[in-house]
Design a protein that fits this description.
The protein has 97 residues and is mainly alpha-helical. The protein contains seven helices and no strands. The two termini are 29 Å apart. The model has no long low-confidence stretch (mean pLDDT 89).
Length: 97
């Protein structure tokens, strides 16, 4: 799913217009338009997640669709550099054992 399909779809499912969401997030509707096209920042994604009551998994999918990594996942990676090789192997389809 692209940023457009995920963020816009969630906003529309909540019955909010782009301008409504912009007012709630105290951002411009133009910046949210670009975020929904896939150029989302962490601030936008976190704002959508908070306003729409999204789960952490949904928020993380929005981050991934925007080519970003959620801050809490970055913190875990930074804290465990010895595990990076195993993580790479698992993400490439290898066993986690």
């Amino acid at each position: 799913m692209t940023g457009n399909a995920t963020l816009r779809g969630a906003r529309e499912a909540a019955g909010l217009s782009l301008r409504d969401m912009a007012r709630r997030l105290k951002m411009t509707h133009v910046s949210l338009h670009f975020a929904e096209l896939g150029v989302a920042s962490a601030r936008v994604i976190d704002g959508y997640a908070a306003e729409l009551g999204a789960t952490v998994d949904t928020r993380d999918r929005w981050y991934a669709a925007a080519g970003l990594v959620a801050p809490d996942l970055v913190a875990l990676l930074v804290a465990s550099p010895a595990e990076w090789a195993a993580l790479r192997h698992m993400l490439r389809g290898g066993s986690s054992e």
